[in-house]
């Protein structure tokens, strides 16, 4: 797991299996094409010194397309840093439903838990919308998170200088935005009990859910957020609703207590309604945001729209020990699946997070992030981030250009 949290992964050799239903290229096709292309040097790869196992979960829709690109980028960046990857590809979500009748096969979870990190594409699609809840593709994702024990969700939202005009905000507001949302992932109202349906004293139907947090749940996510803030710019804003919710009162109390362990980090508190407004009004005031499950679900999606395209945003979900889960925040986009229209950069950047937080390989992570920036500097854009004067490319071509940038490593400012 993440080196910054001093967590040790389990190593086990893996093999390759590809049951994904969606059309896709054979493994490493982009890598072979890029290395055969004129102007791409291949002699710089260092001999492998470190070896990691990575479980690949392509999933549904555009998932196989974007994961194929990210896998090739991960392989090349790793080889240039003396890292060898052992990949094993497994079904999850709708692809698993079609193959074996369940959204998360036992073998998939077993392989994922035995690896050093897990890279996921996307889950779901119209095809499975009418399935029972326990058989929906999204249920497989929830089961995967639970099986891996992930509890901390990290979502960076950075407005890249190359894409500032794509932001929904005015340029002067969006320029320079670089924040990280740390969301507690396994507690709160999404999992609290009692929950369900019933009737009240008047015979009316009611639905009810319960917001519950324990001190230990708050403490562990707070420590991760403080560690991340310490490595960024030393500012942490904890978002709650402590003026009306008892669970938020406990949240604020525990976060304030944990802050004494991190005197070098500046802690502030903000109510969630104000935070949602401030993210639009003045997003540059934030560096690292810590919040609970439901507030984080909402605020991280809001923050994602500051950047101009959900197709650029990665995420990481981390456990106390064992492999983390790394995935783009976009969905499976079944309407463009198999058409070479998907933006693979969110998944590529998720691979960078995998290196940084999953394996502690900072240099390789920076190499990938620099390559993404260099590719954008050279004017290549998929349709979701296209603007006049740029070169419109598809998923496969974007992957090839990123591979060229990884290999050439022209100077660029890394994403924080």
UniProtKB/TrEMBL annotation:
Entry note: cofactor: Binds 1 Mg(2+) or Mn(2+) ion per subunit.
EC number: 1.1.1.85
Pathway given in the UniProt record: Amino-acid biosynthesis; L-leucine biosynthesis; L-leucine from 3-methyl-2-oxobutanoate: step 3/4
Gene Ontology biological process: L-leucine biosynthetic process
Catalytically driven reaction(s): (2R,3S)-3-isopropylmalate + NAD(+) = 4-methyl-2-oxopentanoate + CO2 + NADH
Cofactor: Mg(2+); Mn(2+)
Keywords annotated in UniProt: Amino-acid biosynthesis, Branched-chain amino acid biosynthesis, Leucine biosynthesis, Magnesium, Manganese, Metal-binding, NAD, Oxidoreductase
Entry-linked Pfam families: Iso_dh
InterPro entries according to UniProt: IsoCit/isopropylmalate_DH_CS (IPR019818), IsoPropMal-DH-like_dom (IPR024084), Isopropylmalate_DH (IPR004429)
Gene Ontology molecular function: 3-isopropylmalate dehydrogenase activity; magnesium ion binding; NAD binding
The keyword Amino-acid biosynthesis is assigned to this record: yes
Residues annotated as domain Isopropylmalate dehydrogenase-like: 53-402
Summary of subunit composition and partner proteins: Homodimer.
Family: Belongs to the isocitrate and isopropylmalate dehydrogenases family.
Function (record text): Catalyzes the oxidation of 3-carboxy-2-hydroxy-4-methylpentanoate (3-isopropylmalate) to 3-carboxy-4-methyl-2-oxopentanoate. The product decarboxylates to 4-methyl-2 oxopentanoate.
Name used for this protein in its record: 3-isopropylmalate dehydrogenase
Source species of the chain: Anthurium amnicola
Gene name tied to this protein: IMDH2_4
